[in-house]
Design goal:
Blueprint: H1 2-8, H2 13-20, H3 25-28, H4 52-63, H5 69-76, H6 80-85, E1 92-95, E2 98-101, H7 106-113, H8 116-132, H9 136-146, H10 152-167, H11 171-184, H12 187-203, H13 207-215, H14 223-241, H15 249-252, H16 260-276, H17 280-294, H18 300-315, H19 333-341, H20 345-354, H21 374-391, H22 394-407, H23 417-429, H24 435-443, H25 452-462, H26 466-478, H27 510-524, H28 530-541, H29 547-563, H30 567-584, H31 587-605, H32 614-620, H33 626-636, H34 641-648, H35 652-666, H36 671-684
Antiparallel strand pairs: 1-2
Helix pairs in contact: 4-8, 5-8, 8-9, 9-10, 10-11, 10-12, 11-12, 12-13, 12-14, 13-14, 14-16, 16-17, 16-18, 17-18, 19-20, 19-21, 20-21, 21-22, 22-23, 23-24, 23-25, 25-26, 27-28, 27-29, 28-29, 29-30, 29-36, 30-31, 32-36, 33-35, 34-35
Length: 685
């Protein structure tokens, strides 16, 4: 919405904020269309003194469906030379057969300055001019806009035009026409107009508007239209509220004489929504309806196989072995994800990038007619971003998502996967959340939670706050380790692996498993076998194609090398990780590794003492009392018990008691082991 406002208000930040303040929460979040024209933010007085004829000329341009010059000239009855010589000329740009306002902000002022009578008069002129040139759709539109009473004749034409626009993929135009038709139609025609308006609103990502249009069809509309509307209606509610409504599909199923294909499509849409949210029981219930309906439908084989395959992929169940999964559910997304999960990410990227080419994409058996809608394009964009992340192209993935977020509802696909990716990519590149990631997070409904604790752990880890990262991940584990159904890089370095018993995410490439196995092997290597294991693990890491995944393994190898006192190997692994993160475009990870390397080098050349152990002091502070910590750090620095007692103004016996507690808490037996542990902890941090 911010991008649309910026385009409409000439990137005037003050005007954008002023207009945004006058929008409803649904409009600000993208769940509803922006009002047309936009509310006037300020009255500049630029129209003061403008002759009425010229002001009405500007109003004619504002109310036009298209920017074509000839129809506008016909509607106002003026020549292009007359327009160029008028007082309205400074407000208009005429070029290549089109005419539009030079400053989009003028539209709100022109509309606000016009009276209802003037608006109706201009709409009537438009209707007559469009009728004269044979443009039945424009004539019906303007006639309906000019009419104070219901105009059924216009509603018939607009409903038919909306259906045609939807079939051609022009969803925004279809929504505009169907919405106006619904305002003038009653009975069966009104139900059809509401159905088209609701479906096209959903395809544009306007969930609140779709819910309002489609909700009016229940329970009184004809069964055929309720059957077609049910899936989109439940989808709109799921997108707006974060969860799929818990309804029994058997109670909603139409009679045996109903359109089986329509019911199969509605059930398929809800099944996919349940699968995206890891609702296994709901997925099974709705898939059963899909199978039952497709057994009676002419095109059931294609639809049933494609949906079962996509749902199986999302929830981790077995997929159909008959090859039907290659049907392009949601514009080739299913095929691309299957290819990636089979290990061919390059082929997956080729598939998802090929679909937008004219004449190449397949018809979506679930949401036919909306293959090029904003929501369908958002699914493709988010999928491409995910594939780039899996390939290790962190920087390019973030740039692609930032561009897509400007014009597409990227928070809709896969229960908010785009938001998770936006947050994690910002952290990988910036080290903190950027404005787009924060805005996308605000759009999500409360029930659609993201892994905030994991994000906090990543941010703390990259900032060098090791203990804060451990704390955040500990809370995450205590809450059952919730995670997206898609593999998105987190920060398991601070845990040395996933929680015991945690279920692997179902949608991931084979390399994700290999990288995780290597990190677990690095963390679990026994002390006595470390030097042998280190070389084998280093060679195995070279098999990772993703520079980001390999960089994380190298960084963990550096930590383990430091813990074993091998500072030379630690510096080598850190330098390699730094180069790999640079290749991936993960700037924040690169900076974090560089800081570790510089600290390690500085620590190696610094004299022994507590000043060189700031990281260790910070880590031990999480487990020791303040007095125990002071005693421990003085002991590590070589201070004897008597000197410690004198320095802290306590008895020698008290120092001995504190040291005994320190040894027990840190699992060491004497001062020598305590000193070794201190330096190992410092190197690991």
């Amino acid at each position: 919405m911010a991008a649309q406002l910026a385009a409409a208000l000439s990137e005037d930040a003050d005007a954008v904020l002023a207009v945004a303040a006058r929008l409803t929460p649904e409009q600000r979040h993208g769940f509803g269309r922006l009002p047309w024209p936009l509310p006037s933010a300020t009255d500049t007085g630029r129209l003061a003194g403008l002759p009425t004829a010229d002001r009405l000329l500007l109003l004619t341009v504002v109310l036009a469906l298209e920017e074509e010059l000839e129809p506008i000239l016909a509607a106002v009855g003026r020549s292009v030379e007359d327009v160029r010589a008028s007082a309205a000329a400074p407000f208009l740009t005429i070029h290549a057969g089109s005419i539009r306002l030079t400053d989009p902000r003028t539209a709100a002022e022109v509309y606000a300055a016009a009276s209802p009578t003037e608006i109706a008069c201009v709409q009537g002129r438009w209707a007559r001019a469009a009728g004269t040139r044979g443009d039945r759709v424009a004539a019906a539109w303007h006639r309906a806009r000019a009419c104070a009473a219901r105009d059924r004749r216009s509603a018939v034409a607009l409903t038919a035009a909306a259906r045609a626009a939807a079939a051609a993929g022009a969803t925004e135009r279809a929504l505009l026409l169907a919405g106006e038709a619904a305002a003038h139609a009653t009975g069966a025609l009104g139900e059809e107009a509401r159905l088209v308006a609701g479906c096209t609103a959903l395809a544009c990502g306007h969930a609140a508007e779709a819910e309002a249009w489609l909700g009016g069809l229940f329970p009184g509309a004809a069964e055929s239209r309720r059957t077609r509307a049910l899936g989109p209606y439940l989808a709109a509610r799921a997108l707006r509220h974060g969860v799929v409504p818990a309804v029994d599909p058997r109670r909603l199923a139409p009679g045996s004489g109903a359109d089986a294909t329509a019911w199969a499509r509605s059930a398929a849409l809800v099944a996919v929504l349940c699968a995206e949210r890891a609702d296994h029981a709901g997925t099974r219930r709705w898939l059963a309806q899909v199978r039952e309906a497709t057994s009676r439908a002419a095109e059931g084989g294609v639809l049933g196989g494609a949906v079962a395959s996509l749902c199986g992929l999302l929830v981790g169940d077995a997929v159909d072995p008959d090859g039907s999964r290659r049907v392009g559910v949601r514009g080739g997304v299913s095929s691309a994800l299957h290819a990636a999960c089979e290990g061919d990410i390059d082929e997956a990227l080729r598939l998802v990038r090929t679909v937008p080419l004219p004449g190449v994409g397949e018809v979506d058996p679930v949401f036919s007619g909306f293959e090029d809608s904003p929501v369908a394009r958002a699914y493709r964009a988010v999928t491409e971003v995910l594939l780039l992340v899996w390939r290790g192209d962190i920087g390019p993935a973030r740039e692609l998502l930032r561009r897509a977020a400007v014009e597409l509802p990227v928070a809709v696909p896969f229960a908010g996967l785009g938001v998770v990716l936006a947050r994690r990519l910002d952290l990988a590149v910036l080290g903190a959340l950027g404005p787009i990631a924060r805005a996308l997070t605000d759009v999500l409904p409360p029930a659609a939670a993201v892994d905030v604790l994991v994000d906090r752990a990543v941010e703390a880890f990259l900032d060098g706050s090791f203990e804060a990262a451990v704390g955040a991940m500990g809370l995450w584990r205590d809450r059952g380790a919730p995670q997206s159904p898609f593999a998105v890089p987190g920060v398991d370095e601070v845990l040395f692996g996933a929680p015991p018993g945690s279920r692997a995410v179902p949608v991931r490439p084979p390399e994700s498993d290999l990288a995780a196995a290597l990190r677990r092997a690095v963390a679990g290597s026994a002390d006595g076998a470390w030097r042998t294991d280190q070389e084998a693990l280093r060679l195995a890491a070279r098999g990772l194609r993703s520079p980001f995944a390999r960089g994380r393994v190298e960084a963990l190898l550096a930590v383990r090398s430091g813990l074993h006192g091998d500072t030379v190997s630690a510096r080598t692994h850190l330098a390699q990780a730094e180069r790999l993160f640079d290749a991936a475009g993960a700037r924040a990870w690169e900076r974090a590794v560089r800081r570790r390397r510089e600290r390690l080098e500085a620590s190696a050349s610094a004299a022994d003492g507590t000043e060189a152990l700031r990281g260790c002091r910070s880590a031990w502070a999480q487990r020791l009392t303040s007095r125990e910590l002071e005693v421990a750090m003085l002991a590590v620095g070589g201070t004897g018990n008597r000197a410690i007692a004198e320095r802290l103004s306590v008895s020698i016996r008290t120092v001995e008691v504190h040291l005994g507690r320190v040894f027990a808490k840190l699992h060491v037996r004497n001062r020598v082991e305590l000193t070794v542990l201190a330096h190992r902890t410092e190197q690991s941090l």
